[in-house]
Amino acid sequence: MKKGDLIGSVLLMASGGRPTTDMSVREYDVRSLLAPAINYAMDATYNINLKSEGDRDFPTEFYGTYEDIPIVRTGKRPSFTLQKGTVPLKGNAGIRAVYDDCDNFYAPLTDSDMATIGHWSGISSGTKWYRRKSMTIELWNVNPNATLINYQAITNVDDLDDDDELPIQAGQDPVVIDLLFQWITGEKQIPYDPKINAKEDINSN
Amino acid sequence: MAKSLISIDTMGFDLCSDIGDSVYRHKAKFNRHLINGYRKMSMFIGNSFSVKTAVLKFDNVIEMPCDFIYETKVGVRCIKTGHIAMLSLNKGVQREKLNDTDTQNYLNDVWTNGYGGYRGYYFFNAYNGGQFLGELYGAGRNVLNGGTYNIDKDAGVIYIGSNIPVDSEIVIEYKSDNVSNGLTLVPIEMKECLEFYAKWKFYADRNPSLAVYNEDRYKRDYNQLQRFYNYESCLYATGKINEMFSSTNY
Fold it and tell me: How many CB atoms lie within 10 A of CB B151?
């Protein structure tokens, strides 16, 4: 679902189907709450997939691809700057597939691993790592010929354009819409049965 | 033994893919376990003997390289002339006990006169930090003197005595556990066994049942590798038996 479409549909629902100029809910109200709602759905997606498939991966469509970012070599270590903000997901899943123009792949280096990397000399010399420092990514053991970097990232919703697809897994769209409606109006919608087995339908009694 | 090699890095990526870790956040842990497993295998079931030489800067106490098992040769190198005087050789070479003055004269003699009059020995596979030097050449003999050096294997350090001057470097050839700077490739026949080892250690605290499963598979593969590395053909064994009973009929 596109970002602009979702905001429009939530605004329409909040206004009772007749958006007017004197509505108390404005577009920026929806925009400001969009990121937390999406993040919630994204976390739910991760847990659903892990439970049903044992899969720790997010859908490929979530990731935006950023290519040919220049490697800066003026600092203590070679580095590059993230082009847009990322979603702070569990397991540092916000960034993946970091590779340079020599096709060398880099793996994330956590702080705990960094403490032992000196002892495990084989780890530091033979392989390539990246370490995130806010919006800067430090690179370890970069090939001297590499000048550009490519990466994939789940972009922060606030940094997406209205024509961009939102990172929502199929089936989670209603969850996001419901959440936004609930936060904006302070009311829950008429309860429905999410499992479609009539057990949670209040009208069935 | 190996007909083909595979990089530790590739195996780390493989393991991440196997467990569905597409962002490779567990790769450093897997690499660490893989290297640890390889260190164990290369020490106990590998049949290759690798030595390395490290050139260490002068200090009162010098830390040994992390892949050090035991020393095979020790020498001391004069920075000005670049000549290396031997201090220790293998035990097959006769050792000579020298007093302090004799030791200092011996060092000065080798350093100033070079290799004249002394027998030479090679230090193989030499590194100075990360720089590969190839082979180094030392001259002299086994020297027994308390003022030269003393190696403390438990502490992983070498203590330098008062007869070693400041403007020198310690050159030490040692048996390596094969996991040193730049380890990137391991024999392909060890791949599965190493991967089971890495997964066993990885799951040890996360999922005990998976850890037990992987430990079992690792042990089976380890035994298989041990047989593979120690295999000797029937013809070889028959020849050895014949050799025992007859000095000519084999």
Answer: 18
Which amino acid belongs to residue B248? T
Q: Give the residue from chain B lying closest to A152, CA to CA.
A: B23
Mind listing the pLDDT tens digit for each residue in A57-84? 777 888 889 999 999 999 888 999 999 8
- Record: contact A122-B183, CB cut-off 8 A: yes
Per-residue pLDDT at A98: 92
- Dist. CA A141–CA A122, nearest whole Å: 12
Rg (CA), chain A: 22
Global pTM?
Answer: 0.71
Which 3 state secondary structure label does DSSP give B65? coil
| DSSP bridge partners of B142 | B95
| Chain A residues touching chain B at CB-CB below 8 Å | 54-57, 91-93, 95-96, 105, 107-110, 113, 116-117, 119-123, 125-129
CA distances from A117 to A123, B28, B65 (A): 6, 9, 15
* Cβ B50 vs Cβ B178: under 8 Å: yes
How many angstroms separate the CA atoms of B162 and B154, rounded? 22
Q: What ipTM is given for this predicted complex?
A: 0.71
Name the one residue in this structure whose structure tokens are 């200092």.
B104
The Cα A151–Cα B92 span in angstroms is 59
- Contact by Cβ (8 Å): B26, B202: yes
Q: Name the DSSP class of B75.
A: E
CA separation for the pair B161, B145 (Å, rounded): 9
Tell me the CA distances in angstroms from B48 to A104, A138, B14, one per residue in order.
31, 38, 27
Token output for B181? 């700077």
**Contact residues, chain A, for B24 at CB < 8 Å:** 96, 105, 107-108
Q: How confident is the model at residue B8 (pLDDT cuts 50, 70, 90)?
A: confident
Query: Cβ–Cβ of A126/B20 closer than 8 Å?
Result: no
pLDDT value for B99: 87
Query: Which among B21, B23, B181 has CB closest to A121?
Result: B181
**What is the rounded CA–CA span in Å between residue A96 and residue A109?**
12
Q: Which of A158-162, B83-87, B93-97 has the lowest mean pLDDT?
A: B93-97
Q: Among A32-36, A192-196, B23-27, which is the least confidently predicted range? A: A192-196
Contact B236, B63 (CB under 8 A): no
